[in-house]
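INPUT
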Amino acid sequence: MADVNLKDVKPTITVDARGTYCPGPLMELIKEMRQQPVGSIIELISGDAGSAKDVPEWLNKVHQEFMGVIEETGYWRIFSKKIKEM
Amino acid sequence: MSKRVVIVGGGVGGTIIANLLAKKMRQELKKGELVIDVVSDKPEHFYQPGLLYMLFGLKHHDELVRDERNLLDPMVELHLHPAVKIDKDKNEVHLKNGVVIKYDIVVLATGSRPAPEMIPGLREGGHWFYEVDACLKLRHELMTFKGGKIVLAIGLPHKCPVAPLEVTYMLDDWFKQRGIRDKVEYTYTYPIGRLHGLEPVAHFAAKTFPKHGILTETLFNMKEVDANKRTITSLEGVTLKYDLLLTIPPHKGAQVIEDSGLGQNGFIPTDKFTLKMEGTTNVYVVGDTTNLPISKAGSTAHFESDIIVENIASELREGLTPFRYDGKVFCFIETSLSKATYIMFDYNTPPNPVAPSALIHWFKLTYNKVYWLTPMGVL
Ligand SMILES: Cc1cc2nc3c(=O)[nH]c(=O)nc-3n(C[C@H](O)[C@H](O)[C@H](O)COP(=O)(O)OP(=O)(O)OC[C@H]3O[C@@H](n4cnc5c(N)ncnc54)[C@H](O)[C@@H]3O)c2cc1C
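OUTPUT
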């Protein structure tokens, strides 16, 4: 999905994991993915460049949808969708 | 009219806040202008970090409990009945015995607990040490363990994020001392692509695990356990065989939080600086009960408590809440049965573990003994 569309996405929940070193952005996303109902869109805000790579890699492994990432100044907004139970 | 501050939960955060507030607002308490209540679902206060040592027979249950009444300032009222409902619109806490307490300010400090029921088969096939009975059961299992495959699996969220590492290093040392380390295949799994959430700690583990012969499997999130076949399968599609399954089950917050509609899975949406429940002005949240993406640790509850107390006092006296939590967390990390390191970090400063030493280990053991001064508001 292109960035232009992502800007219009209304997330079910936004997790701002900036400045939080532990447990860290990916673990916050995993927690939310498990907790939220199917169909939820989760926006993860991360100050860690690694997240833009880790998140799609994990989503791919667990067969959930990576919607895309918006790079802002100094942080990343990463969008995922829970498409099946886990 | 006197003001009433009600604290729900008599664990680390709740007890510190009650005692510090009672000290700070002594005059108001004496004049009857302020009442401080603690609502606790049990008469005793349990020091949870002691479970790590109880597992190895290094602490006994009696050393880890104190009477909550004896820890609390005599001017704090203690209600030994569980809260069953918190009505934030009516400013009421409902207790199981039918009593309803009206508050001006409420502090929610009900903590978190392992919820093995969230993973199919985990209760039947797995062990954990995060609760007293489970810890003793695992201790007996370990004492008769002659060798085989041990798998450590970690659920999210969980309190004390360094405990999985600590138990790994301590078990490694313990098996060596018992002369069976060469008969134990130990696999440490972790939910993300490195060995710990904190990057420097992950580096530390990556450097030290190979020296200890500890195997690893990253990107491993528990999906289900088959107790008959003795296997655990991850969401990522990996199945591991085990002889002994050691886990940190995923956690939930207190039932009363869910039942009162205050937060999913019992964790409350909280402002990371003011520590007030989002959208409220008189509901503070402390410790494990927040949904903040930071470590669920006693030290977190402690540092947050200092801020909450200052803000409550300032709010009651002059209607201002100027203090902000900076995200400070401090954790010791045991790296064997005789050495430890520590980490300290906040919202702006990443952690940086120092070289492990016997001195830091002794410091942690000392803290385990003097812990009681923390809830009492002395240390
Ligand atoms: C094995 C282990 C090792 C740990 N090691 C460390 C460590 O080394 N360092 C560290 O900083 N932290 C450590 N922790 C974590 C630490 O113990 C917790 O993070 C801390 O206790 C959280 O404090 P709290 O006040 O939020 O909750 P708690 O201390 O858990 O207190 C919550 C209280 O609320 C009560 N309650 C629940 N529901 C109700 C209700 N309905 N009505 C009334 N009362 C209720 C509970 O019974 C409990 O007394 C460890 C934890 C474990 C399990």
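end of record. Chain B has a mean pLDDT of 97.
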